[in-house]
Amino acid sequence: MLRTRKPLVAALVALPLALAGCAGGGSGGGDSDDQTLTIWHYENDESAMGQAWAKAIEIFEDENPDVEVVVEKQTFEQIQKNAKIVLTGDDVPDVMEYNKGNATAGQLASQGLLTPLTDAATERGWDTTLSASLQTTATYDENGLMGSGEWYGVPNYGEFVGVYYNKDMFAQHGVEVPTTLAELETAMATFQAAGVTPLAEAGAEYPLGQLWYELVLANADQEFVDAYQLFDGEVDFQGPEMTKATETLADWIDKGYIASDSAALTAEDMGVSFINGTYPMMVSGSWWFGRLVEEMNADWGQFNFPGNTLQVGSSGNLWVVPTNADSKSLAEEFIDITLRPEVQNILGEAGGLPVAGDVSAITDERTKTLTQNFDDILAADGLAFYPDWPVAGYYDVIVSQLQSLVNQSKTPAEVLDGLSGPYEEGKADLLEG
């Protein structure tokens, strides 16, 4: 019953208000009589998500033999760019993968383009299956701000930032895996004394900002995270959380723990240099895991940022149901299936960080460690999201300000002033609706 279609790039360009041939639409809401479930996603078949969702489709078809499943393979950029235009029409998918956050799922929700899923979350137990920090990206208020209001999406995998380390280099220099920030600094000092720069970094893109935010979280609590990310309170950019983090990062730069040319390096530069054995540690996301498995020859492992209860990370992308979808109840059933153990365990085995899986079912040791580290964060309700999430355009602000720190053209206090202004302006714009 499964039919797979190629991305409708040409259709989106030529006919922006209706995706020609999309079998899920037509009546502009409610449940259809033609018993078709149309799914849009942008994961390749070999990925952890692609494998897991193929299993979910198989289960759905077994349990709904009279329903035809149509999979429309899109691209991330295609859905990001065209979702608002497409979803205002009648020819829409019944369920689709979409990016989480205020500027994406939140924006569509605030514009009435997504179906509230709060009742389904309660009836199907999603509100107990998913931890509170995972639920944050699933709920949005009337202004599209995440963390409260109705459920508009459901995640079934996660992502987080941790520390990848070269086990061979650690053994060569007699360095143990650190469990506290002080131990991490001791380890970095040991490498530096031996003429080895400890941290692979990239100041031209996201990695340095994520390292900075890990240091912020080392000094922060949940109240701070709620204020910074959800605007539940005021953020003091010259307060102890951000001041200590920025001064620590400046200190690491002064001591040579981060290479002086890192300001101009990209995430790809960082990853390749770690893979090649230039640096013993890389602080970055779980999305690097598969690449390291395929390309890194040295023995390596991964641990959570030492000493932190709060960690950089979030749910993965969301399953959402468009307001004009025909088969909403079928869409909810499919979403529910993606959270079942047999689907979640496929995610886990493939390194996809399930949100409701069984770590003991994973056989590969590296994958088991990665998943256990993520489970430890979830158990502490420790996902603190990403530093650039709060306001539009903040990614570029963080990159620019931290490049100035690496280049030593700004003091930590000046960097924090540079971060504060755009944050407060963006916050005011969002709260004004």
TrEMBL record:
<dbReference type="Pfam" id="PF13416">
    <property type="entry name" value="SBP_bac_8"/>
</dbReference>
<dbReference type="InterPro" id="IPR050490">
    <property type="entry name" value="Bact_solute-bd_prot1"/>
</dbReference>
<keyword id="KW-0732">Signal</keyword>
<protein>
    <submittedName>
        <fullName>Extracellular solute-binding protein</fullName>
    </submittedName>
</protein>
<dbReference type="InterPro" id="IPR006059">
    <property type="entry name" value="SBP"/>
</dbReference>
<feature type="signal peptide">
    <location>
        <begin position="1"/>
        <end position="25"/>
    </location>
</feature>
